[in-house]
Amino acid sequence: MRRVLTGIRPTGHLHVGHYFGMLRQTAELQDHFETFVMIADVQALTDNFHQPQKVRAMVLEVAYDVIASGLDPRRSTLFIQSLIPEIAELTVFYGNLVTVARLQQNPTVKTEIAQKRALFGDSVTYGFLGYPVSQAADITAFDADLVPVGDDQLPQLEQTREIVRRFNRIYGPTLKEPQARVLDTARVRGLDGDAKMGKSLGNALFLCDPPEQTARKVAGALTDPQKQRLGDPGRPEVCTVFEYHGLFSREKLASIATECRSGARGCVACKRELAGGANAFLGPLRARRAELEARPGEVLEILMEGTRKARAVARGVLARVKERMHLDYLGGAA
């Protein structure tokens, strides 16, 4: 059976952008692929190295969000990255196959370095610059055929593919070259109209937000700046609230657009309707999450069992890599 790998950084609670992007679509893939979901705590440390307790605390929180969103531990393997030492070993090997200049040219890395200037100043860390190499190890350690990504992450996956091709060219056919599954909803705009919803940008609806907090956040969402009052014709195509209606109430979208353009729909009422639709949609997910929060020991055991299964796969891949690299000094034992 073909395999899919999804990685999630535990740097904060997951938001609706994550849900409509990777979580929902990974849940759909678990019926057709052997699905691995990695809680990437090592990668989270590349820009949270100064607050490891935050990353540690968020591992379980992210697991609650993931399972509540539809990832079934009976059909998917959920595991913790740092508990798979084979990934770290592969990262070291792959570091010899990519130049510093190539990493610096990676568009995603360049963008993220610019965003992290307050943290790094003018000198980025080795770990942050090299995290595409770690991602290549994540993906190849499980012989992943498919990796769900947003279009902004395609340069990262291409870096993995380059490393795979170079390894196979030097050492012989060993590693599987993964393909991208570009997410149908790759990006959800932030409530403030920013191009992307983000954990640290203050513009996100989190899956764990209580209903009243969701309503407050929606009330402050950006609408068409040219529509000042009821009766003014609106432009739904530039309105963030309208975009969110497309997530939670798609069946009403045509009538909402018509009412907006005619001026018959006011922004306050439109936001109130959106808050109701969002809370109705997220209600069952929140209920499942609350049940999981009440049983943290069971969720931790799910992660431990998934990690045991994932490590068995990674151990086999590493043994194959070491054999090709003539590093199997113990007769093939990893």
TrEMBL record:
Belongs to the class-I aminoacyl-tRNA synthetase family. One of its GO terms (molecular function) is ATP binding. It comes from Calidithermus terrae. It holds the Pfam family tRNA-synt_1b. The keyword ATP-binding applies. The keyword Protein biosynthesis applies. Keywords: Aminoacyl-tRNA synthetase, ATP-binding, Ligase, Nucleotide-binding, Protein biosynthesis. GO terms for biological process: tryptophanyl-tRNA aminoacylation. PANTHER family: TRYPTOPHAN--TRNA LIGASE, MITOCHONDRIAL. The gene is trpS2. It is an enzyme of class 6 (ligase). CDD domains: TrpRS_core. It catalyses: tRNA(Trp) + L-tryptophan + ATP = L-tryptophyl-tRNA(Trp) + AMP + diphosphate + H(+). It comes from the Bacteria. This is Tryptophan--tRNA ligase. GO terms for cellular component: cytosol. NCBIfam families: trpS. Transmembrane segments: none annotated.
